[in-house]
Design a protein that fits this description.
This protein is α/β, with parallel strands linked by helices. It has 20 helices and eight strands. It has three domains: 83 residues, Four Helix Bundle (Hemerythrin (Met), subunit A), CATH 1.20.120.140; 193 residues, P-loop containing nucleotide triphosphate hydrolases (Rossmann fold), CATH 3.40.50; 140 residues, 434 Repressor (Amino-terminal Domain), CATH 1.10.260. It is 56% helix and 9% strand. The protein is globular and about 75 Å long.
Amino acid sequence: MAFESLSERFQAAFKKLRGKGKLTEEDVNEALKEMRRALLEADVNFKVTKDFINRVREKAVGEEVFGSLNASQTVIKIVRDELTELLGGTQSRIAIASKPPTIVMLVGLQGAGKTTTAAKLARQLKSQGKSPLMVAGDVYRPAAITQLQVLGQELDIPVYTEEGSKDPVQIAQHAIPYAVSHLRDVVIIDTAGRLHINEVLMDELVHIKGEVHPHEILLVVDAMTGQDAVTAASAFDQALGIDGIIMTKLDGDARGGAALSIKAVTGKPIKFIGVSEKLDGLEEFHPNRYASRILDLGDMETIIEKAQKAFDEESMEDMKKTMKSGTFTFNDFLKQLAMIKKMGSMGSLMGLIPGIGKYKKELDKVDMDGKEMKHIEAIITSMTEQERTSGNPKMLIKDSRKRRIAKGSGTRVQDVNRLIKQFTEMQKMMKQAKKAKNKRRGFMPRLPF
């Protein structure tokens, strides 16, 4: 999970602050030392780390938090605001041309995932009502054109190619009038990966830019390469003049150093992030939301957006009533799992709930894409009506009940025990969400119920 190690370290530092009634300057300095170590170990640029810590210290002193009963909350708010600025401040979107088509050019190093990202971006724009055209401009990598064509067929999005052509500049140039004649309002040009020190290939990108005049040049970088991604971004921007960054594989980078450094070093915003290998695994980047996730303050805005896409109105109302009532039964558990499956992995969603990070690892063990869901359904439907609706897992403490349920569902007693544990963790999560709603502060996100 993105920023997982950094998040754990920051939460440990804040836990010490929350445990004190009043803070001294020594308390804050100790927490800042811990944060500084956490940022450096997360592979955040040294100068960026130094500037971040200094800004937090200056603001903490300016707020006169020392001796205040709400000092720890004030410090956390200052850190959240500074993390938001470090990640870019505000969301940066693609600039849509007033006269179509909008031309988006994807560039980057080899292996960063440009071709797949082109398809993901096209899919997202299509879901927003656009009519994208993908252009196969990578003529050097074997099967790159075929890969884009296969992805285009899967998404029902056309791909422009020129059979036999080995000139990326010509291909990109010819794609624009083709898009106009076929009423395509967005053109996404997939270019070949190249090292920023390869002057010949970098000049090729400059020529493509000069011919098609893209409205957006987006650099695709691999988050897991850390500061190498930041170095590449600086070099591509100097040679080409990029407008923004798409950071792939952020879901696999537990440190997050590149994401926390790249805007401060290059001045260019992260516009999209790759959060899975699936074609729907591209998200718009919201600096404030990710800052809140790092500090375990939750991200209810993203939950609401995911829910609106995945659920119908009746399902949403049902979920709200369940969470508002404070009761949670095995029947509710089965419904929630079916709904959550539409929104993504259990673990990724847990990171969006305020204060729920400590339960995420256990819940992430639920394999929602495999046989687990069928086993859960079989086990719950094998319970008596009283067992399913009581919401009390202690009712199933007797081994005889577990054996009966296991036999009726064609599973093992171990499977029943695992389900009970997962149910208990989900109950805790629901109570934590309810508690966050009742005790939220000014900087806490508002819950939708």
